[in-house]
Design goal:
The chain has 360 residues and is of the alpha/beta class. The chain contains eleven helices and 16 strands. Bound molecules: threonylcarbamoyladenylate and magnesium ion (MG).
Length: 360
């Protein structure tokens, strides 16, 4: 059930009943669909083990894949961090000051006895203070103690998609993913501004380690904390020495996968493939589109069964629309999605990462 989080009367305002209903559902141990600035999350009270277990069940996600816990922003996220995390290294503190609220998740040592199910049993916990005003309104409501209900410190929320599938960036996408659960309350906060999941930095190894690229680049992270990031190669060495890393499930090779087969190609290879195809696909007996192409260069094709779509030249604009575009291609039931390889520039790291996984 999609419920608008806003009222559109004289300007835009929160719908207090919608925010209240979402907070109430979370307090009662139910799941909700929650907008954030990155992607929509499937949320539950992070300290309610039964509710958190229901997230794993709904997503079909293995129970040892940890979830991100979202905390309220009114004190810069600090009280939420103090509730869930043990020792916070000073570079992590600097990253919170620089980027929270915002699309950055920090892996921190977990405080014993809290958030164990959300953390997938690990002794670390992923924390994020989201910037979306609707997410923050819900998180703030949960921190208000009521006469008979305790404070809720955080909302565990992975992306609101079935395990291994594309993350949702609209309320409609969430409803489509969980169409077998019409009772699920989905707060509609509009299309997600960022469009790809948060940057994840592991802060438990003495230096920042990039686990997942996102809108906040590794360069920005390094600059904000004055520390060099540990490279994946150095991380491998640490792992080989027995300091085994908690592996982010988002780092599984195949992930964010549409139904169609995704291939990355440079512009020249794309045009050559199109020229080779000529009109042939147009003569196929099956109606509808067969191949979708997403490229920055303008391409030409006379084949009517090819769907051509221009990729924006800006990385942030591409991130914003990427998952929607992949879902639209899927809705056309194309068999193949050919994508022009994103530029080799740090600003494109997040988009390139998601496309490489979709193609894996
Ligand atoms: O932008 C986002 O991060 C979105 C929105 C909803 O906040 N959430 C999201 O959650 O992408 P999810 O569960 O789809 O991805 C979370 C990633 C996973 O790859 C998980 O393994 C990793 O974060 N993660 C969470 N806690 C961790 C921990 N303690 N140690 C290592 N990785 C962790
Ligand atoms: Mg996910």
């Amino acid at each position: 059930m999609i419920v608008s989080a806003y009222v559109f009367a004289d300007g835009v305002e929160f719908a207090p009943e919608a925010i209240g209903a979402a907070a109430q559902a979370l307090r009662a141990g139910s799941l909700i669909g929650l907008p954030t600035e990155t992607v929509y999350g499937l949320g539950a009270d992070a300290d309610n083990a039964t509710a958190v277990a229901a997230i794993f069940e709904a997503k079909g996600r293995p129970a040892d894949h940890p979830l991100i816990v979202h905390v309220a922003a009114f004190d810069g996220g600090m009280s939420g961090v103090a509730h869930y995390a043990g020792r916070v290294p000073s570079f992590a503190q600097q990253l919170m000051s620089a980027f929270w609220p915002g699309p950055l998740t920090l892996i921190l040592p977990r405080r014993e006895g809290v958030g164990a199910v959300a953390a997938g049993g690990q002794n670390t916990i992923g924390l994020r203070c989201p910037a979306h005003p609707v997410a923050q309104a819900v998180l703030a409501a949960l921190r208000q103690p009521t006469a008979d209900e305790p404070v809720v410190w955080g909302v565990a929320a992975p992306s609101a998609n079935r395990f291994g599938r594309i993350s949702p960036t609209t309320a409609r996408h969430v409803a489509d993913e969980f169409n077998d659960r019409p009772e699920l309350l989905i707060l509609d906060g509009g299309p997600c501004e960022v469009g790809i999941e948060s940057t994840i930095i592991d802060c438990t190894r003495g230096a920042p380690v990039l686990l997942r690229p996102g809108a906040i680049t590794s360069e920005q992270v390094a600059a904000a904390c004055g520390r060099k990031l540990i490279s994946p190669e150095e991380l491998e060495l640490l792992e080989a020495q027995g300091q085994v890393a908690p592996r982010a499930s988002g780092t599984l090779e195949s992930h964010y996968a549409p139904n169609a087969t995704v291939r990355l190609m440079d512009a020249q290879a794309l045009q050559q493939a199109l020229d080779l195809l000529g009109n042939d696909v147009g003569k196929s007996a099956a109606p509808g589109k067969t191949i979708a192409i997403y490229s920055r260069v303008p391409l030409k094709s006379s084949a009517c069964q090819i769907e051509l779509r221009r990729m924006p030249s800006d990385a942030a604009v591409t991130a914003h629309e990427l998952f929607s575009v992949l879902r639209e291609f899927d809705a056309l039931r194309v068999k193949l999605i050919w994508v022009e390889t994103p530029p080799d520039d740090v600003a494109w790291d997040g988009v390139r990462d998601r496309l490489q996984r979709a193609a894996a």
